[in-house]
Write a structure and sequence with these properties.
about 325 residues, alpha/beta, Rossmann fold, 2 domains, seven-stranded parallel beta sheet, five-stranded parallel beta sheet, about 15% strand, elongated
Length: about 325
């Protein structure tokens, strides 16, 4: 019997640092990998000071982003894993044109972000932010809330328009259908199926999704074709009482055009979890835009976040060690 040789990883580098604590890889992440995968040399950095030194002989990297110069220096690099679902920050020629495999955390965030989407829909439909503001002023605002357009309304029977049918989009469809909503969606290739949506349109028919939606949800990756996809022209297609929700990336929305649409009451409201520049500047006009609900990029937050990250990455590492295809591989040419 031929004995199977377990490949040795020269180095696995974890360099995941962010000003927001919850986005940082906890110490136990690297420690657990060392215990479970003793054939790996796991290096976990707490800052970026040594990354250029460590990168030269690394085989696997877990990181939010990398620079072209680092890709050039990492001669042994074979696989990059991003803890984010969005990977537009990696889409530079040195990586796209290389043989390095890029995976992302699309399966980590889908169900959690979908919960946030549903929470935003209910908040907008039931005017929860307005009630909270009236509470701080000790005002019984029943008549005020009802008189303000759009009226408080039911979610069941409303149409949810969805741009993107990835892991987040599919989870949103499931939750929305359970609430009795009608779902229309747009995806690059409608032949891939509806994933439970009532109707699916191609990119060339995206205007129909904007026209029909009572709640228009953006859950698409950032690509050249999706940047500012919610621009003045498409916002003008929306119903006067419809609401826009963005849980993808800020680049998908023309924020200035959205501000105009809200101030002039051309649409009913909006909820943004992501912005073109984060943190959102204190002097941004968005803070004071009427009928805009802002959440500070919290859609994917959960106490289980890094447990989910570990489960996804460890499964892929087992596949890597056995020379089998990895999960959640990014098509670098398409950018997602």
């Amino acid at each position: 019997m031929t004995q199977t040789t377990i490949p040795t990883i020269r180095k696995l580098l974890i360099c995941v640092r962010h000003p927001f604590d919850q986005w940082n890889a906890p110490e136990w992440f690297g420690e657990r990998l060392r215990r479970e995968f003793p054939q790996a040399e796991v290096v976990q950095l707490t800052d970026y000071d040594r990354i250029d030194k460590e990168i030269v002989d690394v085989e696997i990297v877990i990181a939010w982003s990398m620079r072209p110069s680092q890709i050039a220096a990492a001669k042994k690099l074979r696989w990059i894993h991003s803890p984010a679902a969005a990977v537009h920050q990696f889409m530079f020629p040195e990586l796209v044109e290389s043989d390095i495999v890029l995976t992302n955390a699309r399966e980590v965030h889908g169900s959690v972000v979908a919960e946030h989407v549903i929470a935003l829909i209910f908040a907008l439909a039931k005017k929860i932010p307005g009630s909270a503001q009236l509470q701080t002023k000790h005002i019984w605002g029943q008549q005020i809330l009802w008189d303000e357009l759009p009226h408080i309304r039911e979610v069941a029977g409303a149409t949810l328009g969805l741009v993107g049918l990835g892991s987040i989009g599919r989870a949103v469809v499931k939750s929305a259908k359970a609430l009795g909503m009608r779902v229309t969606a747009v995806r690059e290739n409608p032949a891939k199926g509806s994933d439970g949506a009532d109707a699916v349109f191609g990119a060339g028919q995206i205007g129909e999704v904007f026209r029909q939606a009572d709640y228009l949800v953006l859950a698409a990756p950032v690509t050249n074709s999706t940047k500012a996809i919610a621009n003045a022209e498409r916002l003008a297609l929306m119903k006067s009482d419809a609401c826009l929700i963005n849980v993808s990336r800020g680049e998908l929305v023309d924020e200035a055009a959205l501000g105009v649409a809200l101030r002039e009451k051309r649409i009913g409201g909006a909820a943004l979890d992501v912005f073109s520049k984060e943190p959102l500047a204190a002097d941004s006009p968005l803070w004071d835009t009427p009928n805009l609900l802002i959440t500070p990029h919290t859609a994917a937050l959960t106490e289980k976040l890094w447990e989910r990250h570990y489960a996804v990455f460890a499964e892929n590492l087992r596949l890597y060690l056995s020379d089998r295809p990895l999960l959640s591989i990014v098509d670098k040419r398409r950018g997602y």
